[in-house]
What we know:
Blueprint: H1 12-33, E1 52-65, E2 68-81, E3 85-90, H2 96-104, E4 112-122, E5 128-130, H3 136-145, E6 147-150, H4 154-157, H5 164-176, H6 182-195, H7 201-205, H8 214-225, E7 232-236, H9 244-261, E8 264-268, H10 272-278, E9 281-286, E10 289-295, H11 296-301, H12 306-313, E11 363-364, E12 370-371
Parallel strand pairs: 3-8, 3-9, 6-7, 7-8
Antiparallel strand pairs: 1-2, 1-4, 4-5, 9-10, 10-12, 11-12
Helix pairs in contact: 5-6, 6-8, 8-9
Bound molecules: adenosine-5'-triphosphate, iron/sulfur cluster (SF4) and magnesium ion (MG).
Amino acid sequence: MSKKNETGYLSAKESRRISRENRRITDQLEKRHKRKNVPESEYLTQMKDPNNALEIENLHTYFFSDVGTVRAVDGVSFDVPIGKTVGVVGESGCGKSVTSLSIMQLLQRPQGQIVDGEIRLNLGNGKCYDITKTPTERMQNLRGNYMSMIFQEPMTSLNPVFRIGAQLDEVIALHDGEGKSKEEIKERSIHLLEMAGIANCEGVYNMFPHELSGGMRQRVMIAMALSCNPKLIIADEPTTALDVTIQAQILDLLRNLKNKINSSIMLITHDLGVIAEMADYVVVMYAGRVVEKGTVEEIFANPAHPYTIGLMASKPVVGKKVDKLYSIPGKVPNPINMPDYCYFKDRCEMQVEKCSGEYPHMIQLSPTHMVSCYRYFDGKVGE
Ligand SMILES: Nc1ncnc2c1ncn2[C@@H]1O[C@H](COP(=O)(O)OP(=O)(O)OP(=O)(O)O)[C@@H](O)[C@H]1O
Ligand code: SF4
Ligand SMILES: [Mg+2]
């Protein structure tokens, strides 16, 4: 815990102490990542349910910064069943991207580290890996082949100085190129562009990213992500930068391609409309924790957590006239200094007496619906 002086700022001495302590912790964790020739038995594990593509259990991902430890993901658990789409929603900064980067082992290291928990990835051949223990050299083979990620901003994900074709060919050659000639790889790249709904695929193959529109670039990213038929697709706000019609097309494309290769999607978005259209299950995150999860019907018809209720109230409804849309008052607590009670308490308009107690654990409302809120303790709602 960082000690601030009376001005509210960290002293130079205190800042140096934090840096030293951070280095000690991250050096230890880095050593584990970089080990060579780690026996597979160290990261082999068992899925709790073989029908899941991914199981995240009690994941803690922290950033060891010079002003203190940011608990970006602080005990997140949820599953992604095979063939299903799980939507992850939550306010900006609640840890959605950090969760997905943890799954891909693409955190900004050495500051960003998984400090606790398990991420079990079902490889589909009877094997399952715990990503938190998988060494970096093995991860290169898992990314692309078993899981891939579509990022929010395609322009920053594509390399501006290489043609689209060269970038797609490289991915295929690296992950799926064994025994394939250059012509065969090119043919596959063009086929992928066609599958992603690009009309002039031969032309686009020879273009640079800046010659494409935002929607086309996003399609290229989708083609790239799906090039090796991954079992799990993580889409981090794949349509936020696009207008509504292109957004609908991209979502359709993603859904069709997912069904074609029978994979699962973890879809991160701010947009509840996108969730309603795409997701089978919904996970609601707040300040680095899951506050509610359930099927899409449960979350939309019976939102239980006051934060989810607020989110639902803040979306426009066709045919309902309102002067001003509802917005949740207040702001998220400082991730460096989280309270020891419910993180939503300072903004919650539905508090009960017990809410000053420790952080509420998850309560089961149905076999698939869980919420972490004192209102549902003792089986009584809103005492
Ligand atoms: N590299 C980093 N160094 C320090 N803190 C970071 C870093 N990356 C993310 N964080 C912190 O982790 C927390 C979660 O960030 P994250 O990017 O996961 O939010 P998000 O839910 O994806 O938000 P958005 O909806 O805006 O994309 C934030 O408090 C953020 O400041
Ligand atoms: S536990 Fe209490 S403060 Fe927290 S969300 Fe539920 S009602 Fe609100
Ligand atoms: Mg994000």
